[in-house]
Please model this.
Amino acid sequence: MTPHEPRNGAAGVRLVSAPARPAELLLRDVHALDPRNGLDRRCDVLVRGGAIAEIGAPGTLSAPAGAETVEGEGRHLLPAFVDPHVHLRTPGQEHKEDLETGTRSAAAGGYCAVIAMPNTSPTIDSAPILGALLDAAAREARVPVGFMPAITRGLGGHELTDMAELRALGAAGFTDDGRPVADAGVFRRALQYQRLCGGVLALHEEDPALSGKGAMHEGTVSALLGVAGIPSVSESTMIARDCALAGYEGARIHIQHLSARESVEVIADAKARGVAVTCEASPHHLTMTDEHVRGLDTKRKMNPPLRAESDRQALIAALRDGTIDCIATDHAPHARDEKEVPFERAPMGTTGLETAFAAVYTDLVLPGTLPLELVVSKLTAGFGLLDLFVPTIAAGEPANLVLVDLDAEWVVGESGYESRSENCCFAGRTLRGRVLLTVAAGAVAYRERSTILSVPASGSGR
Amino acid sequence: MRHLLSIDDLTREDIERILDRAAAFEEVSHRDIKKVPALRGRTVLNLFYEASTRTRSSFELAAKRLSADVVNFAASGSSVEKGESLKDTVLTLTAHSPDAIVIRTPYAGAAALVASWTTAAIVNAGDGKHEHPTQALLDVYTLRTKLGSLQGRNIWIVGDVAHSRVARSNILAFKKMGADVTVCGPPTLIPRGIEALGCAVRYDLRDLREADVVYALRMQHERMDQHFVPSLREYAAQYQINGRRLGPRQVLMHPGPVNRGVELSGEVVDSPQAVITMQVKAGVVVRMAVLYEVLAGARDERGAPRPTEPQLA
Model:
């Protein structure tokens, strides 16, 4: 294992980043919080050679020669986040994002690894394309990236990709994200084929016959605006179909970006029946509703759409009771001129990596809706669902860490974004919780520009 | 008033002020020389991304009667067909310094978007299925002329509400003027959640006699291709306003153009209850008042135009 190919648990899945110097860091007097192992106290954390070497009482550890000391002053150190659902737009749409800017954006949001979706141009649906991307990531990616190739060629919904070959090359799973696999017969064959090649099938659930030309949630706001609606049942009926098929075939599926109350009910029911289904929700669906679309701001146009308050409450309840397994951003960059068009013409999607933690912290943790521990565990759970690693703060683990200032306030977009695109649905909002430092796969991947407090250590360790 | 984007932005007082001024302009249209110099030297740009004859000509006439210079820009035969974006088109046309842009597009919110890109006053002449505020104003004007006040009147809007910007603007405007509004149409063409606008919903015409005013919407033929209703014959059987259904004291309105034999039978179009040509007539004076309002009248509290001394808001 090299520092930039972290342990991932699943044979063959490749998570790749550019070579980086293994961190030598003393994080002094941080409030370490890792909900999985009960860690919740002020301490010193020493990182040596890119791995967590030691955790000690505050003020007890000293930096070895050459190590850098970061004064935590009681700020929170969390296991870094992982995102099983981002769009890095490479190849072919580099005017929106590329591997370098997308992973820089991830690092700035406290993420130590991400999985990129295949709806690129061309589609990631063959071994040569996947191979070329893995090579490119080894030159450009600031945090480890894995790729989920398509289930069907060209996302066409008809012919399966060479899934076994893609898997052997390191595919993290398969998805036609952006579109459903509308043909139940094709989808069933993909489920059957999973017995050969493994790899979770991650699903964008939407019945196109019901969603039609819809551009926002079907409800009172869409009625008021005269914009065609996407009904909640276009999502939930497709989830019900796919859970039934997955249960029948004994396959594993992961439902992407859950948005509707009805969908939560379908998944809770499928889980109760023993179907191997997991699911995710995005920060925007957890914090915003169709009321936020009244001004027809195209940054708030995404698929699935922002839904009603009752849907948002159902998602929050499902996060609490475990029906929703993880938070994933669906980071979907678009160029400014693509979004500066009338709402119904605009492409779907919002960026999300740089705002995920702060948005959820500000809107759900600060008001007391969800405990910080739960939010951290959901932001770090996504890779576990794909049999990849779960970032952990413990001696001997690779350093995947994020230092956050929970008291820092910032205005989204005020000082730009690390992402190449600026279509963030939280733009202009004042959020609490700022990422100061991200260590990904043992290397420092991001430092907040103004705040970093580090001093090169002298030999004495202070 | 800086722009006219949505009826939602107007108070009842705003509506009354605009319509009072329209009434004052009515006198101008009876003169031999139907022109006042109120907007002399101002430029009004008509930017139409959708086919329109009556709305566009009515705006053009309104601007000309106020002595403004008018430029018509239609999407066909223009740079739009060469792939220019709405923003680039607007920025290019803004270089000609129009004082007002009257815009119609097939997209909700486009007029508001354009307002954010230019310093010109924007008048929404229809944005997708969202709103058509000047239509609502001229309809209120027509009803005021016909009935006096709308307060407590019962107005039924019948037809394809889902795809109608006229319905949305009119529900808002009629409600603001104190009327009770009921929408009625095939369940496939009544959008879920429309009650939030403050109207009642019916799916048949059984209680149509409750209405003081029956406002029929145009049934567009393309809705047939999308199978929202089984057939035009079935639609007409269920929802056509005809001599049997229309009571003698009910006022009949329609935004035009009428599909005779579909949403309206021929005999009601030609009946004395129909005020359809009054609506068209009202279009010019109401649009004069709107252009005057956004370009000159915002600070004029007297409610009547001062034609020789226009002030820029």
